[in-house]
Amino acid sequence: MLLGQILPTLVDEKPVGRITVDVTTAADVGTITSMRKLTLVVVVVVLGAVGAYVSAGTVAGPAIVIAAPGPFAGADIPLDVMVDAANGMPAAVQVDFEQNGVRTHVFSSQTGGAITATITRDSAPGLNIQSGPARIIVTARGRVWRIRNVDSEAVVDVHIRLEKPRVSVVSTKHYVNLGGSEMIVYRATPSDVVSGVRVGELEYPGYPAAGATVAGTAFSDPDLRIAFFALRYDQDVNTPMRLFARDPAGQEATGEFDHLAFAKPFKRSTITLDDRFIDRVVPAILAGATANAEAFRPTGSLVEQYVAINSEFRTLNNAQISALSAQTSPELLWGGQVFHPFTNTKVEAAFADFRTYRYGGQDVDHQVHLGFDLASFANTPILAANRGTVLWAAELGIYGNCVIIDHGMGVQSLYGHLSSFAVQAGAMVDKDQEIGKSGVTGLAGGDHLHFTMLVNGHMVNPIEWWDSHWIADRILRKLK
User: Is the confidence at residue 152, as pLDDT, over 90?
Assistant: First the structure.
């Protein structure tokens, strides 16, 4: 079929529809693009805000540290809180007191940081502090990036003690010599108070009287206490002395007791040092200090090192000895017997001998000798002064080979400059049992025993403990 014949046929059978063409201008395209960009920006901002809000919720709340109160508190409850807001955000703080199911708001702060205050019954309306368990609740709110709050809470349990301690003397006639010892019997309540005698700023703890069975005497009163105390050689004869009782909440009671203190003269002497002595003792003592890992490394000449040993190392050694008082038994282990008097010896130095040390015609040091130097013959058997537990049997600086025996209730005895040991730490020894032999160790100038007594770590005059009349009057009379 010819083309001319075909076209008319197609036209007749199906008409051709209308074709519409839209023409978009450049201005319209710019508008659409701007709208799409704006929509994208809005979406990004919204998503960012949501993300920031969610992220803010993961930031830790303000850190809360409660330093006080501790496990116990009295009617006045100390509050010591540190609130550290993360990222420098401010923190609003609230403190509540909760007891017997009742929670009371007592304190607020809008700044955080260090907070110190005292919670009393007048701190808030309706606050009713009673004896018994309670809780201090600290809540802190911080604001992260100004879009979300984050909270923290810390709680401390505290036992409230409204019953204050009480203390009163029972024994009579308390006489103490300068550098000497005494004993007191008293009553303290409640049962968990820390109590004893305070001489100046020094405290001497008391122990339950039930631990002092002597000559068949037994104490059934749980409130009775016994305390050994001292008037140190370097204290004033008029130093105040009082009983004290302090409960776990820090509340304290004090009590007076009759006492008289007597001054005692102490000897003054001069010790001349020579090179032979210094050459012998300095290297030996420093070798022992190194072996025992002491924090003591003097420098300079041997004489300068000797002076450091005689002063600084003496102080360190005495601190070690004093610390052993914490290991004392609450029982009177020696049973009231007089202490071994070492009568078969020559006294080369007495207690509280104020010494001046000279070398080359010059004064180089001043120290106080707090014990008795007792000499007999070389390697003399040394006997335990009384029954007790060996706390120390080893080298101890200026004291050389040293034994320390605990006799209970804060009373201990020390034996220095030994050449050898016959006991070891932890052993129970009887009175007059051999514990070692005399020697020339430590700062000893010759073979002898350095002996002293201690009360709660303070060195006291042994003469009293060697005296049967003193034991009978100062101790046994009060116990019986």
Answer: no
Region 85-114: mean pLDDT is: 83
Counting every residue written for the chain, the total comes to 480
Q: Which CATH superfamily is domain 268-460 in?
A: Glucose Permease (Domain IIA) (2.70.70.10)
How would you classify the pairing of strands 372-375 and 449-455? antiparallel
Own/partner contacts of 262-265, CB < 8 Å, gap of 24 or more, are 262/175, 262/176, 262/177, 262/178, 262/237, 263/178, 263/237, 264/177, 264/178, 264/179, 264/180, 264/461
CATH code 3.30.230.10 for 63-160 = no
- Give domain limits for the chain: 63-160, 166-262, 268-460
pLDDT class for 29, splitting at 50, 70, 90?
low
Give the helix/strand (H/E) hosting 5. helix 3-13
| pLDDT surpasses 90 at 204 | yes
- pTM value? 0.81
User: Amino acid letter at 406?
Assistant: D
Tokens of 353: 């001998």
pLDDT for 410-430, tens place per residue?
999 999 999 999 999 999 999
Asked if domains 63-160 and 268-460 share a fold, the reply is no
DSSP-assigned letters across all residues of 177-212: ETT-EEEEEEEEESTT-EEEEEETTEEEE-EEGGG-
Contact 254/196 with Cβ under 8 angstroms?
A: no
**Under 8 Å between Cβ of 239 and 201:** no
DSSP character for 309? I
The CA-based diameter of the chain, rounded to the nearest angstrom, is: 160
Superfamily of domain 166-262 in the CATH hierarchy: Immunoglobulins (2.60.40.10)
* Choice between 417 and 85, residue whose per-residue pLDDT is larger: 417
